[in-house]
Amino acid sequence: MCGIIGFTGRREASPVLLDGLRRLEYRGYDSAGLITGTGNAFHLRKKAGRLAELAKAVSAHPAPGCYGISHTRWATHGGATDRNAHPHLDASGRIAIVHNGVIENYATLKHQLRADGVTFRSDTDTEVLAHLIGHYYHGDLVAAVRQALALVKGTYGVAVVSKDDPGLIVGARLGSPLVIGVGDAGTYLASDANALAGYADKVVYLNDRQLCVLSGDEWEIRDQDLSPVATPLRDIAHFLGEGDAEKGDFPHFMLKEIYEQPETLANAMRGRLVDADSTAHFGGLNLSSQQLRQIDRVILTACGTSYHAGLVGEYLFEELARMPAEVEYASEFRYRNPPINRDTLVFAITQSGETADTLAALRESKRMGHTTLAICNAVGSSIAREACGGVYLHAGPEIGVASTKAFTSQCAVLAMLALYFGRTRHLSSLQGQRLIDELRALPDALRKTLGCHEQVKRIAAKYASARNVLYLGRQYLYPAALEGALKLKEISYIHAEGYPAAEMKHGPIALVDESTPSVFLVPRGNVFDKVMSNMQEIKARGGPVIAVASEGDEEVAALADDVIPVPDVPEYLQPIVVAIPLQLLAYEIALLCGCDVDKPRNLAKSVTVE
Ligand code: G6P
Question: What is the DSSP letter of 65?
């Protein structure tokens, strides 16, 4: 989603800004722009489309100057056009702003500004803020930003420059991350520390409602009443994902990330499985043994793929820990007011740690007095910092917009948490040790599973022209079916639906015909025979069946049109194993459809607006 980079220092700003924006590209965007300054002149370039368009514009009409701000935009208010791209200027053209987030009361503010004679040049909510800052600007940019923001309802991460103050950048945050970076050449302001790798050595994140002022090597954070806040810098390395965000020999980040899963899964478990106590151990839960004993229910809240991991978690907590568990879309949970008792533990599951709805759900839970834990990949992200405690995935940066390795690591962490809670309750040490051994065997099982890639390619070629695909599974494999369908929708734009296999006959079976393939998740397990009956029902109606099944399963092979073999693992780990062929199938079909796999249309990696 939207990204911000600003720089002020001793070198040309535009190459730094363009390079920083490139590193934020993966988050998803539809237009980009930058503004630099020399003397008291501004140089504004902005373009709809890919960053390459902006780079072309800058090379045709260079934007000189040693300070500037820039932005990648993911359209919320107004289409993806040059005009709506950021930066936006105030009426006088003296002030420029880039903004992440949403100004919810923009219509009222716009109405008032129009009545005062302001003419708008874009359809964005951001331009309202530019004019407001301009309205309050009487030579003190920091004061003007503060006064304007006091009128704003919504969320923001902003960077603001003024022609009258060459080299000065003012930033502010509420609900949208901003980080200051300090390096040899000057100081930086960004929405994500990853954009500053190689430029800044030290960073500091702003908290909500704080402002910052940058100029050359100087930087300062101020609170709401503008008094300075002493905040220590930390090494940037602490906030960067392990491993470089490079594709290596892979044609796409998504494929690289699919193939990384044996390793990322091992990383998620490293040092956390303790034979001596037959349990899992986590460094950052921050729960006293009294709190731990009191917890009698868990709520798992998340969005998108992380929500599907939460659904797997529900089964895990119920089966392994015998604890009631509930899963809620964060966007729903934040506005619900369900009766929840005090001893409920709330998990926020998130790859990025910045998803606006998940952050809001976390804050709402904290407000109600619940203990909150984050299951998060991005170190130092807002959710990781605001939760009472948490577990990192250690999966390294996930760049492909469609989440892959984060999902399998989230499932593994949830399995370990269920083991941990189970061991404080009814699980015996022998049962605990069995679970540990099964978890340890998982990276090898994933390595083996990746061997299905060639078979998946053949199947993809056969079904790439389908316009509808059904994904069916039961129990632990129902959330896996939802996730398989989501992967296909996200990157190939083919309509897909995940369903509990037995529910088909209550409606969706009406969709089945020769051109609608069903992907059945049917490795051996307790409900195997039941799922086989469901498969019969689809076959009887002429629907083609692709089965993800246990290696060498003749019974499935006799019924299904195509089979993708996966190694046998216990049922609670099956969602992790079947994720691989489902990710590969979506990937191969998307390639055949000519789609931009890593940057699917309309989507953003990190959704920082509501
Ligand atoms: C976006 C991404 C999805 C992701 C979801 C939740 O929609 O495109 O891939 O699953 O956000 O993100 P999170 O970072 O909170 O896991």
Answer: -
Given the residues 47, 110, 256, 605, select the one marked as catalytic. Answer: 605
Residue closest via CA to ligand 1's atom 3 equals 304
Return the ∠ at Cα 420 (arms to 416 and 422), rounded to 5°. 110
Q: In which band, very low, low, confident or very high, does the pLDDT at 245 lie, cut at 50, 70 and 90?
A: low
66 included as an active-site residue: no
Residue 245 lies in a domain: no
**How many structural domains is the chain composed of?**
3
Q: SS3 for 73?
A: strand
Distance 305 CA to ligand 1 centre (A): 6
Pick from 398, 607, 608 the residue to mutate for probing ligand 1's pocket: most ligand atoms within 8 Å of its CB.
Answer: 607
- Give the helix/strand (H/E) hosting 473: strand 468-473
Would you state the pLDDT for residue 596? 92
Structural domain harbouring 568 = 451-610
Last residue of a domain, one of 440, 471, 489: 440
CATH code of the domain containing 95: 3.60.20.10
Q: How many A from CA of 314 to the centre of ligand 1?
A: 19
pLDDT tier for residue 27 given thresholds of 50, 70 and 90: confident
Q: What is the pLDDT of residue 241?
A: 60
Higher pLDDT, 189 or 25: 189
Within-domain flag for 126: yes
Whether residue 446 is contained in a domain is answered as no
- Inter-helix orientation angle 304-320/477-492, to 10°: 170
- Annotated catalytic, 605? yes
Question: Residue 290: which pLDDT band, with cuts at 50, 70 and 90?
Answer: confident
Q: Residue 506, Cβ neighbours under 10 Å: how many?
A: 10
What average pLDDT does the segment 369-398 reach?
93
For residues 540 and 432, state if they share a domain.
no
Same domain, yes or no: 160 and 62? yes
380 and 300 in a single domain? The answer is yes
Give the separation between CA 460 and CA 596, rounded to whole angstroms.
16
Ligand 1 mean position, distance from CA 49 (Å): 22
Question: Average pLDDT in the 103-112 region?
Answer: 93
